[in-house]
Amino acid sequence: MVDVLGYSTYALYGTDWGSAVGYAQYGTYNTSVHAAYFVFIPFSPPFTAFKGLDSA
Asked: Does pTM top 0.85 for this prediction?
């Protein structure tokens, strides 16, 4: 956005898988992102987070 379009700051919006792309973009270019809104971040906790839990 900064290099190609010439915007000094911009906002991000992402839904579903676009939120993962937007989140990565925010992590890389967080000095130029003015605001970010992600509706759904597709991730899951590591499987080790459930280690030691017994089944109910």
From this structure: no
Domain total of the chain: 1
Q: What is the DSSP string of 11-29?
A: EEEE-THHHHHHHHHHHHS
Q: Which domain holds residue 23?
A: 2-42
**Are 4 and 25 a contacting pair, CB within 8 Å?**
no
Strand-pairing partners, residue 13, are 37
Reply yes or no on whether the pLDDT at 2 is more than 70: yes
Residue with tokens 């597709």: 42
Residues 29 and 7: their CA atoms lie apart, in Å, by: 12
